[in-house]
Amino acid sequence: MTIRLPGRAGEEGAEGEEAGTPGAEGVEGEVLGGGKPFRMIQGKTYVIEGDEFVTENDPKGDTKIDANGVLQGGRQFKAGTFVLPRRHPERRYMLAIDAARTSGFRDSLYYFRRNPLALKLSATQPEKEYLIEIGKLGSHLRTRSVTLVTARSAYKLHGAKTIIDGKWVTDDYYEDKALEEITAKGLKPGDPVGELQEPQTAAAAAAAAAALQEPAQKAERGAGLGMYRAGGPTTLFGGSGLGPYSDGPLNAVKKSYLYHEGLDEANWMWAAAQRTAELNAELTKQRSEILKPCGGIFGDNPPGAREATQEVEAGEKREGTEGPEGEGRRKRRKVRMDDGGMPLGVYEPHSGVVLYREDTQPTRSRWEGLRDDGERRQVLGGTKAGNGAWALAWIDTVMEPPGEDLESKVAHEREQLLAQVAT
To answer: What InterPro entries would the database entry show (predicted)?
Structure first.
């Protein structure tokens, strides 16, 4: 297809344009993508067809997977695959997070960043409902963004890494490319892939080795590496153990937080120690409050508890402590005595709860409504009903020791209820 721009009168090349030769302002060429959707990646045009980028095919690789993403020769994907009838009746897809993890990547975001030829597809709401129905997607992701890739494109990118018990070159789509890569690593065709190491972890090891050899370049490391830096934490629930002002990864964010709080490299450790001490003091105070008898309602001296002075023979435990008269040295200490007036519990340190004896706990409870007398009302309420109603009630809690009268009364009420239910 030729697109000609008309030349201005008097300009050189105007006659050439009329003869079909492009002049200074003429443009001649083919439409990119041939009229199909396309995308420019690293200066090269890739057409989008069949929910994936059209890349170079390999005759050997085509014998291992067909056009719809179905593996051949008894091979199986590590990740689960499925068909989306709304897109194609036979083409196989997989979740992007599964494709990432089975290829050695932490998450789908890092997967797409490191693999620009993986076309990211967004699942529609009907597709998410369908995947939940067939058990390929958790119901908690119903309202979340879910990304997909075609199984064929995932296999073409990572080959043997995506296959159960995959073997280098044997299970790769591009055998020549895979052979060149594993030869540089000292591997041979047919060797098992084994456990995959995340590219970020490998980069961290390489960065650590380079840091040992070239300590002068520590300050330059980490610049321009983006969000996923070498040696980053592998979990959000634990740090790497590096200080915020060290050369560790992702420390720029920590430094910015400390800067806003008025901390610098000279005083941040002192502030951390001070906050740790404050937290320890707060936890110690909470534990001491829990250890107060009966919840502290009787103060520090509950009924039945008294303090006494007890003399302990120190000479029974240690030798060579006899005095001039040959008697063992005696030591005085204060102890708390309990006469059995109030039940004392046992502190359980793992849960921070004081446990009391079972015979001090109530075995049953009941509600007993009292009728209002003429002048005093137990319940003050409004005239409205429903959601606008309000009322104030006076409730007394009474602890009753078990007795024969109470037992017989409760048993009689139970018999009456059972008789009413039976009828």
So the answer is: CRC_Rsc7/Swp82 (IPR013933)
In a domain, 342, yes or no: no
Distance CA 146, CA 108 (A): 10
pLDDT value of residue 179? 92
Between CA 175 and CA 144 the distance in angstroms is 38
Q: Number of folded domains in the chain?
A: 3
Q: Looking at the chain, how many residues does it have?
A: 423
Tell me the pTM. 0.45
Residue 44, phi then psi, degrees to nearest 5: -125, 145
345 alpha carbon, distance to own chain's centre: 39
Q: Which two tokens stand for residue 319?
A: 């030798």
Query: Does residue 52 sit within a domain?
Result: yes
Q: Give domain status of residue 133, yes or no.
A: yes
Q: What angle do CA 153, 156, 158 make, to 5 degrees?
A: 105
90 DSSP assignment: S
CB 246 within 8 Å of CB 239: no
Range of the domain at 40: 1-8+16-45
Helices (H), 239-321: 251-260, 268-290
Q: Residue 271 corresponds to which tokens in the numbers above?
A: 């502030």
Does 179 lie in the same domain as 53?
yes
Residues 6 or more apart whose Cβ sits within 8 Å of residue 78 = 98, 102, 162, 163, 164
Residue 61 lies in a domain: yes
Q: Which residue has the tokens 């606008």?
A: 388
* Residue 335 pLDDT level (bands cut at 50, 70, 90): low
* Burial profile 344-379: b = 16 or more Cβ within 10 angstroms, e = fewer: bbeeeeeeeebeeeeeeeeeeeeeeeeeeeeeeeee
Measured CA to CA, the distance from residue 55 to residue 70 in angstroms comes to 18
355 residue type, one letter: L
- Give the C-alpha separation, 38 to 47, whole Å: 4
Give dist(CA 71, CA 64) in Å, integer. 6
- Looking at the predicted structure, is the pLDDT value of residue 9 above 90? no
| Same domain flag for 38 and 52 | no
Residue 326's pLDDT band (cuts 50, 70, 90): very low
